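G., the chain you wanted modeled:
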Amino acid sequence: MTVVHMPYDTGDLIVELPDDAVIADPPITAAVEDARLAVRAALEQPIESARLREIARDKQSATIVINDVTRPCPTQLLVEELLVDLADAGLTDDQISLLVATGNHRPNSAEELCEMLGAELVARLRVVNHDGTDPDQLVLLGQTPGGVPLEVNRLVVDTDLTILTGIVTPHQTAGFSGGRKSIMPGVASEFALRTHHSPPIRSLEPVMGVMENNVFHAESLAAARMVGVDFIINVVKNQQGGIVAVVAGDLDAAHRAGVAICDAAWRVQLRERADISIVSPGGYPKDIDLHQAQKAVSAAEQITRRGGPIILVAKCRVGTSSFASALIRAESPQAMVDEFLQEGFRGNEHTSKAYMYARALLKHPLIVVTDQLEPDLLAQMFMHWAPNVEQALAMARDMVGPNPKIVAVPHAVDCLLSVGEPVPVSSNR
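Predicted structure as tokens:
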């Protein structure tokens, strides 16, 4: 038997699979020995940019955009080191704001902010949860080249200095996360996202690792340039949560450097498609809810034969999210797909997320392994429930027959999966 550890919340589920099962997990890229030194080195040697302390000289205000709780970013470390450079340039704490890039997610609680930043930073600095529905927070700058109304949080416009932090990982619509994505969708309005998150800007199929001819990426980059981002700092991490690399500097050039590192660390090539795939988002916070866990399903779509079951291993400690209401009221997955193609994105129900689940459900039975969600709730969303991976595998085998090809992906959200010839990453500027 082959033993695989599937991340689940803050632990692992240990699963025994047949000897011929494939474990799609890249070799672990070594983490830097000292994360703080790596951050400092990136700030001292920025990519195609002056150092932050030089850019910040004579500025009177700064906004640092940070990830929300759903992203495993070392936010506290990044902010602490950025503050050193801003202080060197003469900025005081009362001139600096932290803006949480919630996008169309819920606001982060006080407890979550302390988890991300530490209680000292939360008490020391002004921390604002972006709210894309609050007109008092928003300002309209015009339109992107692709026609997206560029309505964003006024903090990134009104302050003298805008700095983005984040993590570079594969992303099912942007190609890769990080960089420009902290602006669009990170601090954009729901009004802007109705266009940006709908066809034809949003790809209808997963595009992890694809930035060439990716309109979603290009529009995000254009939006960030229109806002006037001054500096970014992003990290790349490995399966153990260690920081592999830190990149800092120019909005586009530093991000592309991080993309190249991420691609080298996370690409996995398979010889053939799976009859059954078993995927985990990678544990907390990537499986914090069924909304975030969906990204692992997109990865599975790329490697599972049509009709083959997908087993999603995800705790979902805070439940689903509002996308569930859209999927529940749909008569079928096809009806949900049709609705999204006709009406596009609606933030109050996260219809793009409901669409992505429905898209997968048209091609694959979906079995969710969780002890947090009720079987009846999942059934209303056209999904199956299993209490553990072993029972889920038994259900999947009944669907496909004997001797299935099984592929397990313990860190599916982060992997760049391909079948047959590898697809190299590329980017457009």
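Confidence is low (pLDDT under 50) at residues 422-429.

Shout if anything looks off.
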